[in-house]
Amino acid sequence: MIEVHDLTKRYGDQTAVDGLTFTVKPGIVTGFLGPNGAGKSTTMRMILGLDRPTSGTATVNGRPYADHPDPLHQAGALLDAKSVHTGRSAYRHLHALAATTGIPKSRVDEVIDIVGLHQVARKRVGGFSLGMGQRLGIASALLGDPDVVILDEPTNGLDPEGVLWIRNLMRDLAAQGRTVFVSSHLMSEMALTAEHLIVIGKGRMIADTSVSGFIENAANESVRVRSPHANALHDLLAGPGTTVLSVDRGLFEVTGLTAEAIGDRAAAAGIAIHELTVVRPSLEEAFMELTKDAVEYQSTLIGEAR
Ligand SMILES: Nc1ncnc2c1ncn2[C@@H]1O[C@H](COP(=O)(O)OP(=O)(O)OP(=O)(O)O)[C@@H](O)[C@H]1O
Question: Coiled-coil ranges per the record (predicted)?
């Protein structure tokens, strides 16, 4: 379990993490989402004792990470997969890590098997593809058989097979009862992997929600209706609780009425309908809407900039 309480990190006059409080529970995958620069990596580094909080606390299994006598057994992390000595083989890298932390040699073979690197384990890490490097990073994270697994953007730059592999691995780790905390800036990816979401923007909490709750909230659907009798249709549909937005000639976007209700009303009034389409925002659009005030560099439309 990870518990973060009123966690804050300032760099000079910039606040990277601003009073975050949340709990990451065991047995499920928890996604940590936010646009670039939201403060995800900084939060993860503070949880792992790599950055000192300006104020607030972060604990792993009830204690600050650095206070555990057996930290690698408590939490394993993938923060930067490229921070490996490229002249060494994967096997030697893991072996050195195991030897300096009192982990038995047999565990190295186990983690190499878990991440599927046995065929290349004796090859130089310098020649590894991004996906292989990522697998090695995960092998290092799992070396201490940790209760808590923290992964910072583990699918970044991976091909679809690599993404699928990491997704399944995270689910398996959670099913074994571990706490899995994974950051991403892609809502669509997290919707497939995580059960719970913590969404931050500009260092602040935006949402602490189940994925299903987020999806329900996001299902703010509207209906596109096209008719050659635009005025009559508009008058028929407009009313309290309904918004009828004219998108184009004879084309409306209606909220507050179902497609069935619109079709039935038009039929009863004898108004021909040429299109009736339910429009649901994608999860990515819902996420962008949720975090739109918190993106670091917002693009400006040329029309607005003038
Ligand atoms: N060592 C540092 N010194 C100064 N500012 C920093 C430092 N580390 C992070 N920041 C700033 O803190 C903010 C949060 O950065 P962080 O890397 O935690 O965000 P992130 O959500 O992980 O973003 P990304 O998805 O781009 O990795 C950013 O504005 C960043 O520039």
Answer: none
Cα 16 to middle of ligand 1, angstroms: 6
Indicate the average pLDDT of the chain: 88
Ligand 1 cavity residues, CB under 6 Å: 11, 14, 16, 34, 36-42, 185
Q: Six-digit token pair at 275?
A: 């299109």
Host H or E run for residue 210: strand 204-210
- pLDDT score recorded for residue 186: 84
Distance between CA atoms of residues 51 and 188, nearest Å: 30
Q: Which CATH number applies to 221-280?
A: 3.30.70
Q: Whole-model pTM? A: 0.81
Fold (topology level) of 2-216: Rossmann fold (3.40.50)
Q: What is the distance in A from the centroid of ligand 1 to the CA of 295?
A: 13
Task: List the residue whose alpha carbon is closest to atom 29 of ligand 1.
Answer: 37
With the C-alpha atoms ordered 185, 204, 180, 85, is the resulting torsion angle positive or negative? positive
ipTM, 2 dp: 0.95
Per-residue pLDDT tens for 61-73? 999 999 999 899 9
Residues of the chain with pLDDT under 50: 300-306
Domain ranges in the chain with CATH number 3.40.50.300: 2-216
Question: Ligand 1 mean position to 273 CA, how many Å?
Answer: 52
Contact 226, 262 (CB under 8 A): no
